[in-house]
Automatic annotation (TrEMBL):
Protein name: Probable amino-acid import ATP-binding protein YxeO
Molecular function terms from GO: ATP binding; ATP hydrolysis activity
UniProt domain ABC transporter: residue ranges: 2-209
Source species: Anaerococcus octavius
Key word RNA-binding present: no
E.C. numbers: 3.6.3.-
UniProt keyword terms in alphabetical order: ATP-binding, Hydrolase, Nucleotide-binding, Transport
Pfam families named among the record's database cross-references: ABC_tran
Classification via InterPro entries: AAA+_ATPase, ABC_transporter-like_ATP-bd, ABC_transporter-like_CS, P-loop_NTPase
Length: 209
């Protein structure tokens, strides 16, 4: 479980008390600029709170090695992160960073299918649209086989049909394997349909958390 106690970050976010259960799908919603992405970055240790404590299973995350921690708790940013090369290389690079064995092409193709992307593994990443690159980024994250995933508006560049397919694939994977997803979205329909818990942030304050 993640717990937040008296956490403050600048004048952007103030959390008196918040608990996020593991093995669940938690959605973070709220208006633009309310602090949703800031909360996700705090969980990922990309930024540190000015005061207060964030713990994971009782351990202060400030005391955990940041590299090791982010291997356990990877985050997908709003804008797709790609690397020079083909789709295969982009899918494998996350596993290399984690020093894990490389999956074979069959597993890579399965990951692409899960994000509704029917492209050759040999296709240059630069020849994909922004939405397709985002789906490659999501597939790469899923291949990490971590216990906890942080997603910052994972479907922002996708059409409604693809959004539903991709989010459902990730949620099904998480439920089948008892993994945790914490994601930010502006889509009320996605939040209602694919969340065990919804955290709403308004003007830097947490509600229903």
């Amino acid at each position: 479980m993640f717990t937040f106690e008296n956490v403050k970050y600048k004048d952007i976010l103030a959390i008196d008390d918040l608990k996020i259960e593991l093995g669940k799908i938690t959605c973070i919603t709220g208006p633009s600029g309310s602090g949703k992405s800031t909360l996700l970055r705090l969980i990922n240790k990309l930024i540190s709170p000015d005061s207060g404590i964030i713990t994971l299973n009782g351990e202060d995350i400030a005391d955990i090695n940041s590299v090791d921690y982010r291997r356990r708790v990877p985050m997908l940013s709003q804008s797709p992160v790609t690397f020079p090369g083909d789709i295969r290389e982009n899918l494998l690079i996350g596993r290399k960073f984690q020093a894990k064995d490389e999956p074979g092409d069959d597993q890579l193709k399965k990951a692409l299918k899960a994000v509704s992307l029917d492209e050759s593994l040999d296709k240059d990443i630069e020849n994909l649209s922004g939405g397709e690159q985002q789906r490659v980024s999501i597939a790469r994250l899923m291949l990490l086989d971590s216990d906890i995933y942080l997603l910052d508006e994972p479907s922002s560049a996708l059409d409604d049909l693809t959004e539903d397919f991709v989010i459902k694939s990730m949620v099904d994977m998480a439920n089948d394997q008892n993994k945790t997803i914490i994601y930010v979205t502006h889509s009320k329909s996605m939040a209602d349909k694919y969340s065990d818990k919804v955290i709403k942030i308004v003007d830097g304050r947490v509600y229903n958390g």
